[in-house]
Design goal:
The strands form three sheets. Strands 2, 3, 4, 9 and 12 form a five-stranded antiparallel beta sheet that branches. The chain has a four-stranded antiparallel beta sheet with strand order 7-6-10-11, with no helix packed on it. It has helices at about 5-10, 15-30, 40-60; strands at about 90, 95-100, 105, 110-120, 125-130, 130-135, 140-145, 155-160, 165-170, 185-190, 200-205, 210. The chain is α+β, with helices and mostly antiparallel strands. About 20% of the residues lie in helices and about 30% in strands. The protein has three helices and twelve strands, in the order αααββββββββββββ. It is elongated, with a radius of gyration of 61 Å.
Length: about 220
Amino acid sequence: MPCTGDVKTSPLLASTAALAVLLSACGSESRPEAPSTTTPAVSTSSANVSSAAAGPTSTAAPTVTVTATPAPPSVTPSATAAPTESAVPVACGNDDLTVAAGPVSEADTLRRVDVTFSNTSSQVCVLVGYPGADLVTAAGGVLVHVARRPANAAPRLELHPGEVATADVQASAIDTATGNPCGRIGTLQVTAPNTTQSHLLAVNLPICDATISSVG
C-alpha cells in the first residue's frame, strides 16, 4: 500500500519517531532515481561511431565495374579511292575522239576552218603530233595530201573527258606557182594525231595548197 495513504489514514497509531522513519522511508521509496546521463551518451556515441564506421566503409570502397572501351577500328584508305598520280595517260584512240569542223572563213585568197577533236571517253588520253588532212573528191580520190609533220615538232596534249582540242586548216584559192585560181574544190578529210581513222567532214576547200596546224 502506498506510504502516502498510510500517513493520511493512520495518524493515531504512529509515534513521532515512527512517523519520521516512515516519512523517511516513504521519501526514499517514492523519490525517483535520477536518470543516468552517461548511458545515453555512451549509446549515442556508440551509435555515432557505428554510423561513422559504416558510412566511410560504404562510400570509401564502392564496387567499381570497369568496362573496357574498344579501340576505334583503324581506317585503311582504299587503294582504288586514292588518285593514281603515277599513272601515265594513254594515247587517244580512234574510239576516244569525235572529230568535227566549223564553218569556212575567207580572207582574200585564204580559206580557213577550225577542226575540233573531243574526248568522248571516260578517261584522260593524249594527243601527240600533228593531225593529217587530205582534200578528196566525192568518190574518195585524193586531190591534195597534207603531209604530217614529225611528232616531235608538236606539243603533247592531254585531253580530259569532255575536253576539246582544235587544229587550224588553211587552203589557198590561188595556185602559188602560176598565180591562177584553183580550178577544183575538194572535201576535207582529217585524221586525228596518233590515230589511223580518217573523218570526212562537210567542208569544201580549194585544192591548190593546204596546211594543218598542231592541236591545241
